Amino acid sequence: MREELFISGRDIPKIDPLLKIWEFPIALYLFLGGLAAGILIFSAIVVLLDKQDKLPASARWAPLIAPIALVAGLLALFVDLSHKLYVWRLYTTIRFESPMSWGAWVLLIVTPLSILWVFADVHKLFPNLDLKYKILYKIEELAIKYRKQMAWVIIPLSLILGIYTGILLSAFNARPLWNNAILGPLFLISGLSTAAATIILFAKTSFERHLFSKIDILLIILEIGLIIHLIMGYYAGNEMQVEAVGILVGGELTTLFFGILIILGLLFPLILEIFELIGYKVPVIIPALLILAGGLIFRILIVEAGQLTRILY
Known about the structure:
By secondary structure, the chain is mainly α. It has 12 helices and no strands.
């Protein structure tokens, strides 16, 4: 009897035949990370422009969501981990070529910064709040004193956070649907759009609501343009990319992609926001919630569709 030894990457656990190992928690984290990044970017810009009193929803109220979203996103990541006790190993080194390393370190810095950012306005938001402990008042004083310095740090870190969620996926060469440089900017624009929608929900004045409606209209148009560019890029690619995009265009996820994401998550709220700006009475909650739902569905679709594609030689 002749024995032969076969060595193949196809026998690695959770790689093949289990091709789908990223489930809803990953898509949720990508959504929450982009949302928090967008909110912090808008808030920091408003503070640097000294427009806090004119734009309180973007400067003070919406940022309350940022640390909650970041902590919830981190919990979603932790739930998805197979070896939870070894999460600390992400912080034993910095690998500049690894998007996951960038994301881990940026999250480690941005999360406490987002909490400090909220502390700077805590008594303007809740005048009767008693912080009880002296150290909390000290933290508030420091946050107020160095708020503009924090803003200058928050903007680049939040931009990295918003764009890295797409770069993380695009770095997977073995997944043709993910391996596209447009995903980084697309995820950033989508995160900014969901952040603008959140600010619209918090806005108390028509001025702030209309301002962020205009911003969101621009962002939605940019997002649609990037999605078109993404699809065209796949069709201009190799055979595997053409086959991969077929899942979204003419395949099993076409209804979700065009019917739910493109029409209900982008085009419909875009039309509603335009109508609202030109004077029609449109409940702002409808387009805002549709944009938020569309942002989450977009990430679910990309994560799901990407795992259905693979390179076979």
